[in-house]
C-alpha cells in the first residue's frame, strides 16, 4: 500500500497492545435515524452553495432553502445519514472518527427507493489517511431496508405532493425527464411515455412500499478487501434469508472484532463467517506489501496504455482526478495505481472518494489523487474544474483519459507495455482493456453467483433473474462476452437455469476460489513487473545518496538546507532516453521521501517498502556479479524474472492454512435479544459487543514474538538520549516537509475551517516557491562555485528544463487558487488576456505616444541600436504570434520562459497584479494572489532568478521565426563613413545561419527575420571591393534578437579592403553576449563569468601593422596562453554534450587556440615591415610550402622519411586549398582557417616540427624565437597532442568554401 503505516508495519503501540493485532477495529452501522426523521443533507446544501459561489452566482439563487433542490424528485434527493451504532466505542490507538466514517460510508447521504426500483446491495470501500500518513480502511455494504416508521413515509408523500405541483407543467412541456435522469433500470425505449414516467417518479403511501439505504461497515488496519467483502455479504444474506442464521449476528460480529487476529506476515488465516469460512493471506517480509484490490479490474477499466499513462502522471505528482459513477471503481483504480508505485509512496492529498460536500477541495493548489463520483447522465464538459493546466482526468466509466500537456514518457514504455500485455494475456485479459464486455461479464458472473448463493433452499432461480439473463442473451455483445467467458473460465453456457443446482454448488465454489487465486496471482505478477522497472532504474541509487549528518537530530534540524541526493551525477550516469522522465521524477516529493527514509534507516528501523526494495537490488547485484555480462545502466529492456516464484508463494499460502481463528460461539446475551425478523438488520445488543473477551492471549502471545520485544528494547536504548516529545516533533516536521495535507478534514465544514485549509495552502505555496527559486539559483550557479567565487555554471540543460517546467506548474497552481470563475485551461494565461484587453482599451482611449525610455544606446561612433521597450503586452503579442503553440497552457509556459530569459518575470507579474480591480474581480478573498504580504515575498523570490542567465526560451522554441536587428559600426576617425562597394553580412548561431544578406548601400542598420538561430556565434562580414572608396575600417557589428532582447557584439577593429591591412575583403567575427540593461541595474550580483569574445582591437592591430605600440607578451606568457587554450578545449569535451556551448569561441575567440598560436608564431618574428610592406605569418607559411614543394628532403631513417613526406604533402595540400578558395580572405584569416582545419584533422602536431625545421625560419625569425627552440617546440607538440582524441566539428562559417 502507499501510506506509511503499511505493509508489515503494525500501527503504533503494536508492541504492547494485543488489540492492535486484531483483524478489524470497528463494526459500524449507518442509516436513517427514526427519531430525527428526514433531514436534508446539510453538507449537500453547503456543496450547492459552494458551487454557486464558484460559478459566481449570488448565494440565494443556489436554492439554499433547506437544501431540497426542487428539480430533483424526492426519491432522488439526499438526506442526512447517521452512524446508528459502532462497536467498540473507541480504541486509543485508532480513535473512531464519526463524521469521516459517516461521510465515507454514505458519501451521498441516505437514498430512498420503492418496490419499483432495483435494490441490489452495493459494496464499496474507503480509506482514511491520518496526519502522520498512516491509514485505516473501511469496507461497506449498503442495502435497502423497508421503512417502518409511519412519519417518514408521510413526510415522503408530502414532499412528493409539493414536488409534483411544481414539476407537472414542465414535464408536459418536454417529454424527456428533467428530474435526475431515469435510472438505467427502465428500458430506454419506453422512457418517454409519460405515464410510466409519473409512475416511476412518484410515491403513494397506499400503493408503494418505501425502502431506505443502510450500511454495515468494517474498519480494518490493513486492506483485506476480499475477506471483508465476503464477511459482509454473508451477514447481509443472514438478514435477508428465510431461515434465521445459526447463531445471533452478535456472535459473528464479536468474533471478527475480538477473536480474529491479523495473519502474521507471510501466513494465511481462516476465520468463519455466518455460512462459510473466509480466507485471507498476508505477504511475507520480503514480498511486495499487501494489496487486495484486483488489478485485473483496474486494467480492464482503463486499458493497459491508459493505465501506464496515468501511472506516469502519478509518478510525476500531477493532479489526478478519477471520475466514475461507482465508488468501488474509484477505489480500485486509486489503490491499484498507488500499489504499483512500489517502492515509492504517494505523498500528497489522497482521497479516492471525495464526498460531494468536499468538492471545493478540487481547488487545492497541490498535487492530489482524488476520486469524484459522477452523477448519472452528467457530461464531462459540464464538470467545472478550477485548474486543468496540470490535471490528468480519468473518466473510468468511459475508458477515456485527458493528459496534461508536455509530459515525458515512462522509460522503455513500448517494451514495458509489451511485457505487461503478455502477463495479462496469460490470464485471458485483453490488454486494450475490456470496458463493455468485462462489465457485462462481471455482471453475469455476479448474477449467477448470487443465484447460487441466495438460493440453496429451493433450487429455483427467482423469475426476474431469468428475464435478466434472457435480456443479456439478446444483447449483441454476447458473442464477445462468450469468448471472454471461455477465456476466463467463467462457464456461462453450462448453467442450466431450470435444473436443480445442488450438485453444481461444489463445482462453483471451487471455481470461485480458483478465480480468486488467479486474481491474487495476476496482482502479484503485474506488481512484480512494475517493481522490476524501478529496480533496474534505481539499482545503484545508493551510491548517490549524500550522507552528511552524524546523528539523527542534526539531520532533522537541518533537513531543509541539505541536498540529500546527488542529482547531477545520478543523471549523468543514466541512459540518454531515460533522462526526460528521470530528471523530473527525482524532483518529486515521493522520491525525496524515499531518499529521506534511506538516510533515516541508519538510525531507526528501515521503512518496510525500502527494506524489500533494497533486498531486491542486492539480489540483482549478486546475479550480475555471476552473469557473463553485467546488465546495469543500459537502456536495453530486461524482463522481470521473479514472476513464477511470486505466484507460487501465494498459491502455497492459500492451499494450506497456517492459522485458524476461534469459531463464532454463543455469547452471554439477555434472553429475548437477538430476535430475528427477515429483511431487517436487528438492533444489536451493545453490551456484549462493547468489549472483547477478558483473555484472548492465545494468539497475542503468538504474534508478539521475540521480534517485538527486541524492537521495544531497541527503541528504548536508542532514544534515551533525545527527549521523546522533542524527537516526535522533529520526526513529524521532517516527515511533513513539503507535504501539505494528506486528506481534508472530513468533519466540520464551517467557513472557518475552509479558510484555515486555504491558509495552509497559501503558506505551502509560498514555501514551495522559496525552495524552487533557491534550487534554480543554486543549480545554475553551482553551489560551491558561488561560494568560492568561481562562477563555473554547471546546471545541465536537462535539469534546467525540469526546474523551469516545475516553476511553470507552480505558477499555474498559484494562479488557479481561489479563482472565482474558470476560463480556459490556463488560469495564468486567462488573467494575462484580461489584463491585455484592459490595457489595450486604455491605449485606444489615451492614444498618446508611448515613452520609449532612454532614446538610444550610443556607441563610440554615434551609430546605435534603438532601445527595446520593456512591455508585458509586447511579450504577450510575441507569444500570440507563434503559430507553433496551439494551447493556452502552452502559451502561458512560453510566456514564462520568455520573461525568465529576459529577466522580467518578477517585474511582469508585479505589473499584472498591480491592476487590483482585475485581481479582485477574478479571485476570492482567500486566494494566494490576494494575500498582500505573501504575494510580495513571492515576487521577491522570483526576482532572485534575475541573477543568472537563462536561455530557456531560445533553446526550446527552435523552429520559430525571429526578427533580428543588426548594426555595423565603423571607426569614423580613420575610415570613410561612406563606401562605394556593396557590403554583405551573414549571421550564424548554434542552430543555423542566415546565409549571405546584402546590406543596402550606406545603410549600416537593417532588420531581418529568420528561423531561430539560437545563441549567436559568428558574423561574416565583407564587401565586393567595387568603386573608388572600397576600404572600410569596422569597429564592430551588433546583432539583437528582437523578441528576447539578447544583444551580441562582434568586435572587429580591422580593415576590409585590398591593399590595406592584410588585404582581406571579408572577416569572421566571434560574438559576445552583452549584459542587458537590467543586469547593470542589478549591480554586479551576477557571478556568471563573461563569455570569451573575439580578440580585441588592440591585440589584432598589434599583431599586424602597428607593432611596437603595445608591450609584447613574454615567452612564458605565450606558453601559458597555449596551455590555457588547449585546456579549455579539453574541458569543453568533458562536459555533457548538451551543455558544451560554442567551440568556435575556444578556437577563434580572444584567448582561443588560434590567437595563442599566433602569439607563438609572432614571437621573434623579424620586423613586420620589410621595405614598407607588411609581412604576415601567412607569408612564412607560403615560403615553407614553396620549399617543401621544390625539395624532397632525404633523412637517414627510412620510416621517418615516409611520415615526413606525407605530412609535407598534406600541409601543402591544405595551404593551397585555402589559397585557391573562392573567398577574399586576408592573410590572418587564412592562418585562422589553417589552424582550425589542422585542429579538426589532428594534424597540428605533425605540421609544427616541419615548420620549425624549414630553412625559411632562419631568415624570418630571430635566434631567440620560440619556434627556433627545440625544447619549446617539443613541449608545444605534446600539448597539442592532448586534443588528438576529440572529434572536433567546425562551424560552417569558419571554413566555408575551403575544400580539403
Task: Describe what this molecule looks like in 3D.
The chain is built from 45 helices and 28 strands. With 1300 residues, it is α+β, with helices and mostly antiparallel strands. The N terminus is likely disordered. The strands form 7 sheets. Strands 1, 2, 3, 4, 5 and 6 form a 6-stranded antiparallel sheet that branches. A 5-stranded mixed sheet has the order 10-11-9-12-13, covered by helices on one side. β23 and β24 (1047-1056) form a beta hairpin. Keywords: Guanine-nucleotide releasing factor, Membrane, Repeat. Its main location: membrane. Residues 63-605 form the UDENN domain. Belongs to the RAB6IP1 family.
> Can you summarize the main beta sheet?
6 strands, antiparallel
Give the proportion of residues in helices.
40-55%
Uncertain runs: 1-17, 54-70, 173-197, 436-479, 489-501, 696-727, 733-740, 783-795, 848-861, 1079-1109
Proportion of strand residues: 5-15%
Structural class: alpha+beta
- Backbone CA Rg: 39 Å
Mean pLDDT: 75
Oligomeric form: single chain
Task: Give the N-terminus to C-terminus distance in angstroms.
Answer: 66 Å
Q: How many runs of DSSP E, i.e. beta strands?
A: 28
Number of helices: 45
General shape: elongated
Amino acid at each position: 500500500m502507499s501510506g506509511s503505516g503499511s505493509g508489515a508495519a503494525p500501527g503504533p503501540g503494536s508492541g504492547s497492545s494485543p488489540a492492535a493485532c486484531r483483524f478489524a477495529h470497528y463494526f459500524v452501522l449507518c442509516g436513517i435515524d427514526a427519531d430525527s426523521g428526514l433531514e436534508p443533507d446539510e453538507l449537500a446544501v453547503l456543496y450547492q452553495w459552494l458551487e454557486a459561489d464558484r460559478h459566481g452566482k449570488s448565494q440565494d439563487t443556489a436554492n439554499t432553502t433547506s437544501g431540497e433542490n426542487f428539480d430533483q424528485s424526492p426519491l432522488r434527493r439526499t438526506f442526512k445519514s447517521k452512524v446508528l451504532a459502532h462497536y467498540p466505542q473507541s480504541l486509543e490507538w485508532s480513535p473512531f472518527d464519526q463524521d469521516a466514517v459517516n461521510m465515507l460510508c454514505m458519501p451521498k447521504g441516505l437514498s430512498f427507493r420503492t418496490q419499483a426500483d432495483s435494490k441490489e446491495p452495493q459494496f464499496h470501500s474507503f480509506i482514511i489517511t491520518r496526519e502522520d500518513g498512516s491509514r485505516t480502511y473501511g469496507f461497506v455494504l449498503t442495502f435497502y431496508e423497508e421503512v417502518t416508521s409511519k412519519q417518514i413515509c408521510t413526510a415522503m408523500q408530502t414532499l412528493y405532493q409539493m414536488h409534483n405541483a411544481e414539476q407537472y407543467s414542465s414535464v408536459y412541456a418536454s417529454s424527456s425527464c428533467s428530474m435526475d435522469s431515469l435510472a438505467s433500470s427502465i428500458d430506454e425505449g419506453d422512457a418517454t411515455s409519460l405515464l410510466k414516467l409519473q409512475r416511476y417518479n412518484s410515491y403513494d403511501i397506499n400503493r408503494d412500499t418505501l425502502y431506505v439505504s443502510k450500511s454495515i461497515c468494517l474498519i480494518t488496519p490493513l486492506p483485506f478487501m476480499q475477506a471483508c467483502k465476503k464477511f459482509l455479504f454473508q451477514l447481509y444474506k443472514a438478514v435477508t434469508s428465510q431461515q434465521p442464521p445459526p447463531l445471533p449476528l452478535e456472535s459473528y460480529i464479536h468474533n471478527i472484532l475480538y477473536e480474529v487476529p491479523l495473519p502474521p506476515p507471510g501466513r494465511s488465516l481462516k476465520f468463519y463467517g455466518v455460512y462459510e469460512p473466509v480466507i485471507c493471506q498476508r505477504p511475507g517480509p520480503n514480498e511486495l506489501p499487501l494489496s487486495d484490490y484486483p488489478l485485473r479490474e483496474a486494467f480492464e477499466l482503463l486499458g493497459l496504455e491508459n493505465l501506464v499513462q496515468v501511472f506516469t502522471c502519478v509518478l510525476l505528482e500531477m493532479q489526478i482526478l478519477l471520475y466514475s459513477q461507482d465508488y468501488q471503481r474509484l477505489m480500485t483504480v486509486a489503490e491499484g495505481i498507488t500499489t504499483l508505485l512500489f517502492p515509492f509512496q504517494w505523498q500528497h492529498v489522497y482521497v479516492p472518494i471525495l464526498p460531494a460536500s468536499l468538492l471545493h477541495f478540487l481547488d487545492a493548489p497541490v498535487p492530489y489523487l482524488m476520486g469524484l463520483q459522477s452523477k448519472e447522465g452528467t457530461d464531462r464538459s459540464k464538470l467545472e474544474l478550477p485548474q486543468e493546466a496540470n490535471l490528468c482526468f480519468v473518466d473510468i466509466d468511459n475508458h477515456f483519459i485527458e493528459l496534461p500537456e508536455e509530459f515525458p514518457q515512462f522509460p522503455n514504455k513500448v517494451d514495458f507495455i509489451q511485457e505487461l500485455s503478455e502477463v495479462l494475456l496469460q490470464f485471458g485479459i485483453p490488454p486494450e482493456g475490456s470496458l463493455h464486455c468485462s462489465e457485462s461479464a462481471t455482471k453475469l458472473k455476479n448474477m449467477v453467483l448470487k443465484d447460487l448463493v441466495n438460493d440453496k433452499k429451493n433450487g429455483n432461480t427467482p423469475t426476474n433473474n431469468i428475464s435478466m439473463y434472457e435480456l443479456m442473451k439478446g444483447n449483441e455483445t454476447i458473442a464477445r462476452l462468450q469468448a471472454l467467458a471461455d477465456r476466463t473460465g467463467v462457464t456461462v453456457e453450462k448453467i442450466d437455469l431450470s435444473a436443480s443446482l445442488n450438485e453444481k454448488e461444489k463445482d462453483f465454489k471451487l471455481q470461485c476460489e480458483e478465480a480468486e487465486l488467479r486474481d491474487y496471482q495476476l496482482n502479484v505478477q503485474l506488481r512484480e513487473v512494475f517493481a522490476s522497472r524501478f529496480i533496474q532504474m534505481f539499482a545503484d541509487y545508493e551510491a548517490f545518496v549524500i550522507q552528511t549528518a552524524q546523528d539523527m537530530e542534526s539531520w532533522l534540524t537541518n533537513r531543509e538546507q541539505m541536498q540529500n541526493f546527488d542529482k547531477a551525477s545520478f543523471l549523468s550516469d543514466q541512459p540518454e532516453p531515460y533522462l526526460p522522465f528521470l530528471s523530473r521524477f527525482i524532483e518529486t516529493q515521493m522520491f525525496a521521501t524515499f531518499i529521506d527514509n534511506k538516510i533515516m534507516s541508519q538510525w531507526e528501523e528501515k521503512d518496510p517498502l525500502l527494506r524489500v526494495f533494497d533486498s531486491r537490488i542486492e539480489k540483482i547485484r549478486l546475479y550480475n556479479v555471476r552473469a557473463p555480462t553485467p546488465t546495469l545502466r543500459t537502456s536495453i529492456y530486461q524482463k522481470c524474472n521473479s514472476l513464477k516464484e511470486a505466484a507460487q508463494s501465494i498459491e502455497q499460502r492459500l492451499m494450506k492454512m497456517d492459522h485458524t481463528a476461534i469459531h463464532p460461539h454463543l455469547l452471554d446475551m439477555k434472553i429475548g435479544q437477538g430476535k430475528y425478523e427477515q429483511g431487517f438488520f436487528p438492533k444489536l445488543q451493545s453490551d456484549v459487543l462493547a468489549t472483547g473477551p477478558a483473555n484472548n492471549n492465545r494468539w497475542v502471545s503468538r504474534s508478539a514474538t521475540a521480534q517485538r520485544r527486541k524492537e521495544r528494547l531497541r527503541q528504548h536504548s536508542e532514544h534515551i538520549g533525545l527527549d521523546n516529545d522533542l524527537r516526535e516533533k522533529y520526526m513529524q516536521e521532517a516527515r511533513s516537509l513539503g507535504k501539505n495535507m494528506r486528506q481534508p478534514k472530513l468533519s466540520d465544514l464551517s467557513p472557518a475551517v475552509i479558510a484555515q485549509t486555504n491558509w495552509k495552502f497559501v503558506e505551502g505555496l509560498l514555501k514551495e516557491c522559496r525552495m524552487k527559486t533557491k534550487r534554480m539559483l543554486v543549480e545554475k550557479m553551482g553551489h560551491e562555485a558561488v561560494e568560492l567565487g568561481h562562477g563555473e555554471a554547471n546546471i545541465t540543460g536537462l535539469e534546467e528544463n525540469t526546474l523551469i517546467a516545475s516553476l511553470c506548474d507552480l505558477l499555474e497552481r498559484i494562479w488557479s487558487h481561489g479563482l472565482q470563475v474558470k476560463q480556459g485551461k490556463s488560469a495564468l494565461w486567462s488573467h494575462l488576456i484580461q489584463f491585455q484587453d484592459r490595457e489595450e482599451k486604455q491605449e485606444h482611449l489615451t492614444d498618446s505616444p508611448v515613452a520609449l525610455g532612454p532614446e538610444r544606446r550610443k556607441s563610440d561612433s554615434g551609430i546605435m541600436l534603438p532601445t527595446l521597450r520593456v512591455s508585458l503586452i509586447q511579450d504577450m503579442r510575441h507569444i500570440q504570434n507563434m503559430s507553433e503553440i496551439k494551447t493556452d497552457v502552452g502559451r502561458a509556459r512560453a510566456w514564462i520562459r520568455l520573461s525568465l530569459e529576459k529577466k522580467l518575470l518578477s517585474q511582469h507579474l508585479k505589473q499584472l497584479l498591480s491592476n487590483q480591480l482585475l485581481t479582485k474581480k477574478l479571485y476570492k478573498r482567500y486566494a494566494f494572489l490576494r494575500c498582500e504580504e505573501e504575494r510580495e515575498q513571492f515576487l521577491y523570490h522570483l526576482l532572485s532568478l534575475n541573477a543568472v542567465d537563462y536561455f530557456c526560451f531560445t533553446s526550446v522554441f527552435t523552429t520559430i521565426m525571429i526578427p533580428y536587428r543588426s548594426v555595423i559600426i565603423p571607426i569614423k576617425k580613420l575610415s570613410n563613413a561612406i563606401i562605394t562597394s556593396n557590403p554583405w553580412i551573414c549571421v550564424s548561431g548554434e542552430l543555423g545561419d542566415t546565409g549571405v544578406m546584402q546590406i543596402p548601400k550606406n545603410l549600416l542598420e537593417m532588420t531581418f527575420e529568420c528561423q531561430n538561430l539560437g545563441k549567436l556565434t559568428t558574423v561574416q562580414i565583407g564587401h565586393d571591393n567595387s568603386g573608388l572608396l572600397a576600404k572600410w575600417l569596422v569597429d564592430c557589428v551588433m546583432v539583437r534578437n528582437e523578441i528576447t532582447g539578447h544583444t551580441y557584439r562582434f568586435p572587429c577593429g580591422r580593415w576590409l579592403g585590398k591593399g590595406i591591412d592584410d588585404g582581406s575583403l571579408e572577416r569572421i567575427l566571434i560574438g559576445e553576449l552583452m549584459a542587458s540593461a537590467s543586469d547593470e541595474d542589478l549591480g554586479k550580483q551576477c557571478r556568471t563569468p563573461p563569455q570569451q569574445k573575439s580578440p580585441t582591437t588592440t591585440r589584432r592591430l598589434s599583431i599586424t601593422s602597428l607593432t611596437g605600440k603595445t608591450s609584447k607578451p613574454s615567452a612564458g606568457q605565450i606558453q601559458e596562453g597555449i596551455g590555457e587554450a588547449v585546456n579549455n578545449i579539453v574541458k569543453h569535451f568533458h562536459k555533457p554534450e548538451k551543455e558544451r556551448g560554442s567551440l568556435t569561441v575556444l578556437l577563434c575567440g580572444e584567448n582561443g587556440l588560434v590567437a595563442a598560436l599566433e602569439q607563438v608564431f609572432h614571437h621573434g618574428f623579424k620586423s613586420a615591415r620589410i621595405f614598407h610592406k607588411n609581412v604576415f605569418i601567412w607569408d612564412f607559411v607560403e615560403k615553407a610550402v614553396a620549399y617543401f614543394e621544390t625539395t624532397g628532403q632525404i633523412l637517414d631513417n627510412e620510416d621517418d622519411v615516409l611520415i615526413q613526406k606525407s605530412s609535407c604533402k598534406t600541409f601543402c595540400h591544405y595551404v593551397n586549398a585555402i589559397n585557391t578558395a573562392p573567398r577574399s580572405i586576408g592573410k590572418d584569416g587564412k592562418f585562422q582557417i589553417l589552424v582550425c582545419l589542422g585542429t579538426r584533422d589532428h594534424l597540428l602536431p605533425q605540421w609544427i616540427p616541419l615548420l620549425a625545421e624549414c630553412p625559411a625560419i632562419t631568415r624570418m625569425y630571430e635566434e631567440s624565437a620560440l619556434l627556433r627552440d627545440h625544447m619549446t617546440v617539443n613541449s608545444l607538440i605534446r600539448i597539442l597532442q592532448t586534443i588528438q582524441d576529440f572529434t572536433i566539428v567546425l562551424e560552417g562559417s569558419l571554413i566555408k568554401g575551403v575544400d580539403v
